[in-house]
Write a structure and sequence with these properties.
Length: 58
């Protein structure tokens, strides 16, 4: 079974990275778009998570 969603609070992570690296945190709006996919693997013993962030502005 594969489950997923959009924009799982990625803007908080992007803003924190921008602040830590002395960049403009107001750019997080475009950069916060992400797709999160989750899939159970190893007969349900493990969870494989993929996060794709196609629009990161630097």
């Amino acid at each position: 079974m594969v489950s997923g969603g959009f924009n799982a609070h990625a803007s908080n992570i992007v803003s924190a990275i921008y602040i830590a690296t002395d960049q403009d945190p107001s750019q997080n709006v475009e950069s916060s778009h992400c797709i999160t996919m989750m899939e159970a693997v190893n007969n349900g013993k493990d969870l494989h998570i993929t996060v794709t962030m196609p629009f990161i502005e630097v």
